[in-house]
Design goal:
By secondary structure, the protein is mostly helical. It contains seven helices and no strands. Helix 2 runs antiparallel to helix 7 and helix 5 packs antiparallel against helix 7.
Length: 249
Amino acid sequence: MIKFFRKIRQNMINEHRATKYALYAIGEIFLVVIGILIALQINNWNENRKTIVQAHKLLIALQHDLVQDTVLIHKNLPEVIDQFQFNESLRARVAAPKATSDTLINITRHEFNPNWNNLLIYNTNTYNSLNETGLIEELSDTLKANIKNFYNGKSYRKGMVESITLDYRNKLANYVDTYTFGSTSLHDQGALIDSLVWNTIDLGHLAASFQGMSNFKRLLFRLTRDEMEYSLTNSKNLIEQIDNYLTDK
């Protein structure tokens, strides 16, 4: 093809057809430019296609993360609810009209467990990748907003629990330095230490300590349950939205 065009140019030059040669040269330049533009367009299309494919792969991975999170929540939420209800039952017994100091001692010594477990750890690697790579911007405005709102909501709720947990741990440290409680895998003080501690307790201090600890646990259980229920409900909705988005594409 190059030899063909070169031959045409040479014939025009030999025949001194300057005007026609100039027009031909312009036409050849035009064809070259068109070819370059087409090549760039194809390259851009290929790059856009790669971007879309990568975004879809991350959406599928995000779905997987959300499914795993819902399994984790289903496994742990009943225990959180049970513990919340147990904590409320202890508070109700102490607050009952017929409650005595023995009621308080029996509950705090043998039943109340001040320990607190941290929130569940969710997998946010895919969501972080969507943001860090900028691929989240390739999604529809609706889906992008829903994904961001969901994870922002989780982060806000988790932050609240973590903040209250820090305060609770300070109270917990003081409590366990003062009182023993029912034997657990972490606390097995034995009969001697247990009896020495409880033979010299200050009932007023015990009552105030239990009230404060159980109040904090009530708040923590509520915040934790709220976060888990929020994640559970909205994870299901987001999984469905992603599925519909991928199907339409």
